[in-house]
Amino acid sequence: MSALIIRRFIQMIFLLIGISFIVFISMHLAPGDPASIIGGPTATKADILGIRQRLGLDQPILVQYWNYLVGLLHGDFGVSFQTQRSVAAELFTRLPNTINLAIASVIVSVIIGIPAGIISALKQNSWLDVFSTTLSLGGISIPNFWLGAMLILVFAVHFQWLPVGGLDAPFWTLQGFKEMILPAITLGTGSAAMIARMGRSSMLEIIHSDFVRTARAKGVKERVVIWVHCLRNAMIPVITVIGLNFGFLLGGTIITEQVFAINGIGRLMIESIGSRDFPMVQGAVLLVAAIFVFVNLVVDIVYALIDPRINYD
Fold first, then answer.
1. Where is the chain membrane-spanning (predicted)?
2. What whole-number distance in Å separates Cα of residue 28 and Cα of residue 276?
3. Structural domains of the chain, count
C-alpha cells in the first residue's frame, strides 16, 4: 500500500505539470488581451504596453510558462491580474464553499442512489424497478441549470421554505444547512442516477453468481446473503463511480454556483475566464485537478480495504 501511495504521488506530480502546461498554453492562445481588459477603453497603446511589461506578458510564452512553473515549485501560484491579490489566498478563501457543496452533493447522491440501486435489483422487473429506472434516466437527462432554477422557483420563491442562494452561514448551523439543500440536490441528482444504475447492474450480477447460490444452498439467511455476501462485492464498482463523480462534481459546481450565487471556485473560474485572469484560472484548474487525483488515490485505497483480492503490485 505504501508503494502504491508513493507511486501515485509521483504520477500526480507529472500529471499536474502536464495539466498546467495545457491550461497555460490554452489561456494564452485564447482570444482577448488581459492588458487591454485591465487598461480599459481609455488606455493608450503605451499604457497597454506598460501593463504587458509589468505582468510579464511581453516575454516568449515558453519563458512565461517556465517562470510560472518555477513559482509553483516554490508554492507561489502567482498574483491575480484583476485584484492584485495572491491567487493562493483567493482560492483557499473560496475553496471551503466548493468542497462543502461537493461533499453535500456526494452525500445526497449516495443516500438516493445506493438504496435505489439495491431495491431495483432485489425487485427486478417490478413496478419499483421500473420507477427507479425511470427516475434514474430523468436524473441523468435533466440539466443542472434547469433543475436548479425549478427548485428555486418552487421551494424558494413559491413556498419560501428555503433560501434562494448563497452559502453565507456556516454549514453546521440551521441557516447554513438550509442554504445547502437546494444546491446539493441540484448537483447530486445526476450522480445519484449514475450510482443507482451502476448499483443495480452490479447487484444483479452478484446475486446470480455461483458463491451466492452456494450460500443459499447451505441455508444462510437471505438477509445475510444480501447484506454480507452480495452488497460488499457489489459496492466495488459503485465506489468507482462515487470517487469519479466527486471529481466531476467539483467541475459541476461551476454551473451550480452560478445559479445559486455561491462564491466558490467554480464561480471564480467563470469570472476569471471572462477577464482573462490567467494566473487565477490556472491556479483554480490545478487545485481542482489535484483534488480529483487525490480522491482517485483514496478510492484505490478503499478498494483494497473492501476486497483483499485486489493487488496493486
1. 12-30, 101-122, 134-161, 181-199, 238-260, 280-306
2. 9
3. 2
Q: Which residues span the domain enclosing 197? A: 88-306
Longest dimension (CA), the chain: 86
Which of 299, 164, 307 minimizes the C-alpha distance to 229? 307
Rounded Cα distance between 203 and 209, Å, is 10
Spatial distance between the Cα atoms of 283 and 271, rounded to a whole number of angstroms? 13
User: 51 and 20: one domain?
Assistant: yes
Same domain for 192 and 248? yes
What does pTM read for this prediction? 0.77
Do 59 and 131 lie in one domain? The reply is: no
